[in-house]
Amino acid sequence: MNNKKKKKFNRYTGLLIIMIMIFSLLINEMVTLQMIHGEEYSARANVEFIKNIDYSAPRGEILDADGRVLATSLKSYNLIYVDTTESRKVLYQTIDEVRALLKNSGEDINDKFSLKTDPFRFEFGSEDPDFINKSELRWKKDRGINDYLFNTVLREETGKSKISELNEKETDRLDELILEFSPEETYFYLIEFYKLYDALSPSAEEKKLYDKMSGREIHEELLKKFDWQTIRAYLVIRDSIRMESYQGSKAVTLMSNMKEETAFTFLQQLSKLPGIDVETNPIRLYPYQATAAHVIGYLNPIPAGSQNSYMEKGYDISKDYIGVSGIESAYEDWLRGSKGVKTVEVDKNGRTISELFELGTYPGNNVQLTLDANLQYTAERVLSDLIYEYSQVNTVHRVVGYTQNSTNATRGAIVVMEADTGNILAMASNPSYDPNLFAVPGRLTSEMYKEFFTPDYKAYAEELIRKMNLRTTVNAKTGETRPAVPEDLFRFNADGTVSDFNDIYAKPLFNYATQGLIPSASTFKVITGLAALEEGVLTPNTLIRDDGAYTNDQVGNPITNDGGGAYGNINMAKALAKSSNVFFADVGYRLYKAKGLNAIAEWAWKLGMGYNPEEKPHSTTGLEINENISGNVYNHYSKVEITKRLFMFDVVAFLNAGKARNTGRSFAPIDIGVNRADEEKKALGKEKIKEAVRNAFDISIDDANNYVRQDYAEVVQSLRKAFEEYIAILPEEEANGLESSKFYAEQIAAKIVYDQTTEIISPRNVLNSSIGQGDNQTSLLQIANALATIVNGGTRYKTNLVQRITDTEGNVIQENEPVVLEETGIKESSVNALLNGLRASTLPGGGSYATLKDFPIATGGKTGTGTFKENQQELGRDAFGLYTAVAPIDDPEIVVAVVIYDVTRGAFVVPAALAVFEEYFEEKLKTEYPDYVRQYEYELPEPISSYEDKVEGDDTEADTAADEENETQP
């Protein structure tokens, strides 16, 4: 009985006891969490992660010679988004609210997205096709388009399972497919790739349906709720988030350089905007806007093709800007500051809770230039005024026997430099631009981008044909004249790019002072005179008879004076004053007879006008910023290479045309042109013929000076062998009916030995060079430095734009002293003779007298009118106008060089030098010549201090509205 009453302890009882104990512990822990440590653990739960935040350092300032600030950095406000688990949940709602707040303040989200709509296109900030292709490839690969195309096309074609398994040819094929993948296809691919249907807040079942849709179909669904602009904004931000993920947990900049009041508005709304925050960041400001833009340069985002190298240097490729031209580029490492970093705790909405560590920024160093901002502004303004006058107002110019048209006188340059240091005091290039447009995302509107990088060349050509009243143009392919069409002024390529092969269009970002190559025209006569004096073929007092034309048995057609004048017996000084072609042609022939074909070139090289082609390519000026180092003065070596290069096109056309040399009788054509469809053996056979042609141009300077040609029989033999081998590998149907290899070899050999070589070894080349024509093509900077070298007594200095580099406290880190590149050894008597000639050209009867007659300080100068090509007007071009000048003539301080393209006459650009002289000698004129009235007086505008001030060419609110309208629907 007692056993029955005793409570039985079984497994259920034990389980009950254990459960009671567990629940007791849980209740105790919950009480501890909530009541005792509630606030502490709540804060910990709110921490999403610890992260490092990079802070950009201000770039160093760029100053003019007197300390005026030409480039500086300002504090600005950026709107950022931090991608976290919590903020991601409401991303699209947050974007909508952010855009609404920005719209209320007249601003919008940054749009650095290279894929544009209306029409669909890519914008990579360049006209260079190679750069564009490389950027497009990198951009698309970063977004997985290479994987997509491999999986959908090449996997089956090649049988390979990975991209890494592709061979070189297959890899090239993949790149071709990527480039063929259109902007429109890319847009809809990204709609699908980023699953933008999430903006519709779909259910799980709806997501399954969307996953089966194409990007275009998803887009149609999105359009039922959102407009094009909103969808694109979603795409831009989703893309930015993904690109940032490559660099770790970093913020995405939604808006740069916000207005201060806009920043405060967002700071008040942060609790309602998960992931959104406001940060300060330095931005670049150019207080004098377009002044010295081509010298200073501008900033741009890091291009896709260079991102890896800049990441290795510590740059943030998503938001850091780098100098891409001018001093900003050349002195990037000096100007760039040291970044700061903060280690912070971030809450679930991406905002900083606490700072754990901070390393401050350190500004970049300052670069002080040799430029005088007042002189620079004067040079730019007078150049702009002259270009306006001759392209818009005074455009038709009648000369004896012909009419010229300066409608396309839309570009030019001025260089002002110290004669005895190489320091550049002013360097103007027109057209110009305001670098502020590139300093902040969003300021460069679509219309501005088009003007800078993708202009409407066809519309421009049509307008130019109308303005110049062109009846005919030259067919670029055949060389034949036909009724005027735009396609003859520009080459419209099959890939959509345009080649401005006649250098017609005025390019705002191009520095015409350092990058343009121009004929030095009659300004080169000073160098011809120097060579003659130094080589002893004449003296300053030698008289040469100018009867209006020069010729002899070796030079062919007579060389005449411009306008048909004749000046009788004249010496060097009068020949320079009158710009006598006859005098200098005679001098050129004397030099040829005494020293050979390179007689003038060897002196030009001493002065930095090009260099001996047997040397490695190099700068002859030493300038810090980008320049064209391909300048050339006629010489035997370059003449051979130029003739050879041009003949390679001619020989292909000749063999295709099937018309024999001299007789014109028909023969069976043979094609040796490049054809991508050719099999390797056939392509190699063609190349062997071309190599034999190139080798046939092996003409030594000694043979050329002695008027000795190649051995015709030897040339025939080498060419015949190449033709035999090529014909032997041709299919029977192609080989049948061809002429013998001997026939083709003899035809080409005759053209080389009797036509091309005759041109190469002719002294006519020296005569053309003696008056600044022919193969003479140099930069304006080289022309200026050559004159400076002569007038300072023969010392060629390195040209210099930078005076010194200082730290933020003003301490000098580097001082640039004049650097001598070459002592030419010019005789003092030669210098004096040339100065007398330069002075004579500014006196009555001289080419610049009309403009400079009232200027009280004695100057010297030389005008030049340079032909572009014989049929230049049918190419939309006309003659260059040049002027080189020095002042004071009795003790030269500065040299000025001016060029305006297509202005037709050198005399038209002389006023630019006068304006420069009036500004440079301003104090001397006031004290010594108080009654002199300046003809040109320009006042440097007050600098802007912020982007709230009006920026040249900028109408941000209006342009933003226009862009919004343009992006609504393709």
What would your notes on this structure say?
The chain is an alpha+beta fold and 970 residues long. Among the domains are: 2-47; 636-759, no CATH class. Helices cover 42% and strands 16% of the residues. It has 38 helices and 31 strands. Strands 2, 3, 6, 7, 12, 26 and 27 form a seven-stranded mixed sheet that branches. The chain has a five-stranded antiparallel sheet with strand order 16-15-31-30-29, sandwiched between helices. A hairpin with a 4-residue loop joins β4 and β5. The radius of gyration is 36 Å and the shape is globular. The termini are far apart. Residues 1-7 and 955-970 have low confidence and may be disordered.
Largest sheet: 7 strands, mixed
Rounded radius of gyration (Å): 36 Å
Question: How large is the count of helical segments?
Answer: 38
Sheet/helix structural class: alpha+beta
Helix fraction, binned, reads 40-55%
- Number-wise, the strands total 31
End-to-end distance, in Å? 97 Å
Question: What share of the residues does DSSP label as strand, in percent?
Answer: 15-25%
User: What's the average pLDDT?
Assistant: 90
Oligomeric nature of the chains: single chain
Shape: globular
Low-pLDDT ranges = 1-7, 955-970
